[in-house]
Specification:
Length: about 900
């Protein structure tokens, strides 16, 4: 018998399991044992860590393969005579796993491509990467194992089997994709645009409908005086509507539409509002949803007749059902994305919820698989969907569902334990039998303008100077209105319920919002008021170092610490506020100069000899605390130092009065920091492929253009933005039109607004640097147009806010994404910065106005309400003195 490990054996000799007379294994020993052991460890880790749930098919299969690899490693090391059989069996099993995983991935990709239209280039590449990694971990060792231990040879039958498998594979993938697509429902002829035009022409004139009373009852103490003004309640309802399309609707030509509009409030609603602190200020109307059914050619007129019969002259929402698909449960992950965020509604046997209702109730972001990335939220929960449709879901099922979809909500001591499904979990946790419905989404604003929506935002938003300026004014007003009396900004706002979080704040976020107001505010009184309040609020957290005077020339070293019981001052919590104190100086004067100079001395004390910065400083000991530098903080520190240097150059008297370190000290510190980040900080192999978040370095480099040029530091920003330019979705990315310009991997995950507008902020700085260097920015202008156009679509405006709460201003704010409506102050701050700085660079490249601005009567925003300045503070009580 020929030894397959012997290179002198005849090439045509069939390989046999090597053995000697005693039957021991004489094939590869330590090389096989090492490789098999490595593969076993990899698959054991994959089985235990990758699946979300215990004992999934993936975990069982990977665990079995890991066991096979471990058995191969042990038998090869021991030269056991049955090594050939174990290696061969493991190799066959590994190839089976590759085929199974390949089918699961391709069928899942086909299903998602059929549902979403296209995966997009990013997700397509991700699927190929996963398949490639799986092949790398299975094919080489399996082919070696089969070649070394099996007699079988390639023949025509094997070739035919492979061809047949390929045909079945492709056919199955095509069938899976087709099954995901919705069956079109009857609509008026001519496509979606024609439907929109027909409805716009058919809706009754406002004069035909009863007006909504917007004046309250006379005041008891002044019956002849002016009546109080009432506000419209939100056109928001979570009630499902009985409008389930019949399965034979295509054959019968029956069309369906769900209308939501205002009707006179019921006595029960009026009494409930009277018991509310703000309910008495609302107009005596409430939203109602109705289902309209009619033959295809009569549906538009039927909608108009229903509005004439019951609706009042106010905002209206119209959803024409354009498609339906009966859902089949596939697996845990695919069921999460069985509904397209903002595009698909859901029905059970009796009732339906429209896509905008699911978005407004956060149904598309219920899964949080990665606890340490809280903003990574996506996908639906069948349990929550059925509860929203009116199902009586047991409490224990709701808790179980929440804990498996949001593992971080489990108690820490229970997170490593199996999650036991309660009775009824399988029934409630499945999407089987629910009906996915697609809609044409139309809104009629309170001024009778008709707009088509896409994912709860306007489908078309013109990129014009008019619209850009309007968006900036709205963002400015939102931030001003979000400030509380004590100077702190409201952190989050649910635009539909009005629920706010006002106590979740931190110093960098507070300072960043203040900085943008000072940079881009157009109302000087408002800017000064907002800035003064915010800076005074942050000043209350200033702490002086007890033993650090010598390090900064004998003057006070000041740092900002949020918690008064702590003594550790974090770099970012002082560096970013430092920027705002210098940037806002032109608006607030010199009242915070002493604090600003103390913050600069803190940064000087935090700088290492190589130009980088320590992460923390202990104000009790007067010593920096070593450790890794936090993200963002290095660029923020340079930004503060360069603004201080600029002030010392342009106004030396003011710099001396505030006891700012001398110009040379500031210049040398800034130069050392710039050289560090331009040089050793990211001078490695990864620079050609991957960067961290470096936006603040770009902003610092732009702020230094007039007084402190550093070519290497500027190039650092330009290179970083060149890297980031590959991420935003483009028209050729094969994604939905409303995704173009956003940050995402494809069609399945909706783009997140903050990374998108953050790219716009950094790109604006990079463009300013290039212009200062005389470089071409024409390509950057086109990129910026896409970013600004995306941001304009994402901003809440009076049209898209048809269901927003009247309690707090939502117009002008920005949400996390099209699927996550919660507005956050930092989302809005970054978006305004992109609109302001980026918009200025494309201003001359966009038209002054657009046809849509005129024909759709975009209203001018009212004057910003004046804000009362805070009372003057006694200098003896001033926290900065």
């Amino acid at each position: 018998m020929a030894d397959p490990t012997d290179s002198t054996a005849p090439k045509d000799a069939p390989p046999k399991p090597p053995a000697q007379g005693d039957g021991s294994w004489q094939g590869p020993r330590w090389s096989l044992a090492g490789l098999a052991l490595t593969h076993g460890l990899i698959f054991a880790w994959a089985a235990s860590k990758l699946p979300w749930s215990q004992w999934s098919t993936f975990a069982i299969v990977c665990g079995a393969l890991a066991f096979g690899h471990f058995a191969t490693a042990l038998s090869a090391a021991a030269r056991a005579r049955f090594t050939a059989w174990i290696w061969r069996g493991t190799s066959i099993f590994a190839l089976g796993l590759l085929l199974w995983l390949g089918w699961q991935l391709t069928s899942s990709a086909s299903y998602l491509a059929g549902l979403y239209g296209d995966l997009g280039k990013g997700l397509g590449a991700a699927v190929l990467a996963v398949l490639g990694l799986a092949a790398l971990l299975t094919l080489p060792l399996s082919i070696w194992g089969l070649a070394a231990t099996w007699d079988a040879r390639w023949n025509r039958a094997a070739a035919g089997s492979v061809a047949a498998l390929a045909i079945v594979w492709i056919g199955g993938a095509w069938q899976t994709a087709s099954a995901a697509q919705a069956t079109p429902l009857p609509l008026p002829g001519g496509g979606e645009q024609r439907v929109y035009d027909q409805i716009a022409d058919a809706i009754p004139a406002w004069e035909e409908l009863p007006p909504i009373p917007l004046e309250g009852a006379p005041r008891k103490n002044d019956p002849d005086g002016p009546r109080p003004k009432l506000k419209l309640p939100p056109l928001w309802t979570t009630e499902p509507v009985a409008c389930v399309p019949a399965y034979d609707a295509v054959d019968t030509g029956q069309a369906y539409a769900v209308l939501t509009y205002f009707v006179p409030a019921s006595e029960e609603t009026i009494q409930r509002r009277r018991r509310s602190a703000v309910g008495w200020r609302l107009a005596p109307v409430e939203p109602a949803s109705r289902c309209v059914q009619a033959p295809r050619e009569a549906i538009v007129e039927a909608i108009a007749e229903q509005l004439r019969a019951e609706a009042m002259a106010g905002p209206m929402k119209i959803d024409l059902l354009s498609g339906m698909a009966l859902l089949r449960s596939r697996n845990f992950v695919l069921d999460m994305v069985a509904l397209r965020p903002g595009l698909d509604g859901i029905c059970d046997a009796d009732r339906c919820l429209m896509p905008w209702q699911l978005t407004a109730t956060n149904q598309f972001i219920f899964n949080e698989p990665v606890g340490w990335i809280p903003d990574f939220r996506f996908g639906v929960s069948p349990v929550r969907l059925q509860r929203a449709l009116g199902g009586s879901v047991p409490k224990e099922v709701l808790i179980w569902d929440r804990e498996r979809r949001r593992p971080k909500t489990r108690k820490k001591e229970e997170r490593d334990q199996p999650l036991i499904a309660p009775d009824g979990a399988e029934e409630w946790g499945s999407i089987e039998g629910l009906l996915r419905v697609e809609t044409v989404s139309i809104v009629i604003s309170d001024d009778a303008e008709v707009r088509e929506l896409r994912r709860l935002h306007e489908r078309e938003v013109p990129l014009s100077q008019h619209r850009l300026a309007l968006a900036q004014r709205r963002a400015e007003r939102y931030i001003a209105e979000a400030q509380l009396a004590n100077g702190r900004f409201t952190y989050t706002l649910d635009p539909f319920t009005g629920k706010r979080r006002t106590k979740s704040w931190n110093l960098p976020r507070q300072a960043g919002t203040t900085l943008v107001m000072c940079e881009l505010g157009t109302d000087e009184h408002q800017t000064r008021t907002v800035a003064t309040r915010s800076l005074a609020f942050m000043a209350k957290h200033a702490r002086a170092a007890e033993n650090g005077d010598a390090a900064v020339g004998g003057s006070k070293l000041l740092a900002l610490i949020k918690n008064e019981t702590k003594t550790e001052a974090h770099l970012g919590s002082t560096a970013l506020p430092g920027i705002s104190y210098f940037a806002c100086r032109e608006h607030v004067g010199d009242r915070f100069d002493t604090l600003a100079a103390g913050l600069v001395r803190y940064l000087l004390a935090m700088q290492r000899p190589d130009g980088s910065f320590y992460p923390k400083y202990d104000v009790a000991t007067g010593e920096p605390i070593d450790g890794p530098e936090p993200m963002y903080a290095g660029g923020q520190a340079i930004f503060t130092l360069t603004l201080a240097e600029k002030l010392s150059i342009e106004d030396p008297e003011a710099a001396a009065a505030m006891d700012l370190p001398d110009t040379k000290t500031l210049h040398d510190a800034t130069e050392a920091a710039m050289n560090y980040y331009a040089g050793p900080y990211w001078d490695n192999f990864l620079r050609d492929f991957f960067w961290l978040e470096e936006n603040w370095h770009c902003l610092a480099a732009r702020a230094s253009l007039g007084h402190h040029r550093n070519e290497g530091y500027e190039q650092f920003c330009v290179d970083y933005m060149a890297y980031k330019s590959r991420v935003p979705l483009r028209p050729d990315s094969r994604v939905a039109e409303e995704f173009v310009g956003g940050y995402s991997l494809g069609n399945i995950l909706t783009p997140v607004n903050t990374p998108t507008v953050g790219y716009g902020e950094g790109l604006a700085a990079s463009m300013a640097i290039k212009q200062a260097r005389g470089e071409d920015v024409s390509e950057d202008v086109e990129h910026m147009k896409a970013i600004i156009a995306f941001a304009l679509r994402q901003q809440w405006n009076p049209v898209t806010c048809f269901a927003c709460t009247p309690k707090h201003l939502a117009v002008g704010g920005f949400s996390e994404s099209m699927s996550a409506p919660e507005i956050r102050i930092d989302y809005t701050q970054h978006a305004w910065a992109a609109l302001g700085h980026g918009g200025a660079l494309i201003w001359d490249h966009i038209p002054p106005s657009h046809e849509m601005d005129r024909t759709r009567g975009e209203p001018e925003e009212p004057e910003f309400p004046g804000l009362t300045a805070p009372p003057a503070q006694d200098p003896a009580q001033d926290p900065v003195q």
